[in-house]
Amino acid sequence: MRRLQVVAVSAAVVMAGLAGCHPVNGTSSDGAGDAATTRATSTAGATSGGSGGSGDGGGSAAAKALAGLTVHPKGSMTGYDRLKFGAAWTDNNNDPGGHNHCDTRDDILARDLTGVSYKSGHCTVATGTLQDPYTGKTIHFVRGPDSTKVQIDHVVPLGDAWVTGAAQLSATQRLDLAEDPLELIAADGPANEAKGDGDASEWLPANTAYQCKYVARQIAVKAKYKLWVTAAERSAMQKVLTTCPDQTLPTE
């Protein structure tokens, strides 16, 4: 009888040890994905050209949305022209703020700056202060010769949008993409110019505290307009999102 009790206890100890040996689905207790699994999943997605798999950098809304984006190489810049996205800052769009009799640039300045004053009426922003998300600097905006200190950035550059699916959108859809508040943010002029048409694998804000929100906004835009990401872009986004496991998706 004593020998049977010893055997039973030993078996229980072995089973308990086995239960705690391996994290579920290759993730650690803090929700971060195994690096090798993430790389393998990303490569598989890029090879198949399909949507992302489980290597999404975490379980946040942003990470899940990224996992749902198609992974595909960039297309051709052939045919690209800024005018393919409509007239810059036109109020004639179907986005939030469209047809409000103020141009889109002033709409975004009014949204992103603090202490705003207007040149006349309620549209033309004359002055304000920007806490720049890209550099962390405080920039005092004054309309005039130095207005370019603050620029309105297309979070997904229009050139990048063109080669990741926007070339196949209708003219109306491209206009709405270019004027969508979700796609636009007031930012430091030199930082915006340095970014060019770079995707997340080629450029990220120097202000690391803003990188998660920046990537999440790019993902939200690409999901809304059914644009794809490259394998390198997706990998760069995943790397950023592992630092913010609760990152939400912006809606505007």
Automatic annotation (TrEMBL):
* Pfam families per record: GmrSD_C (PF07510)
Q: Gly residues bias: where?
A: 47-59
Q: Which keywords does UniProt give here? A: Endonuclease, Hydrolase, Nuclease, Signal
Region spans: Disordered:
25-59
The domain of life for this entry's organism is Bacteria
The Swiss-Prot or TrEMBL record annotates one GO molecular function as: endonuclease activity
Would you indicate the residue range of the signal peptide?
A: 1-26
Q: Where is the GmrSD restriction endonucleases C-terminal domain?
A: 103-240
InterPro entries assigned to the protein according to its UniProt record, in alphabetical order: GmrSD_C
Where is the sequence biased in composition, kind Low complexity? Answer: 29-46
Q: What is this protein called?
A: HNH endonuclease family protein
Q: Which organism is it from?
A: Streptacidiphilus alkalitolerans
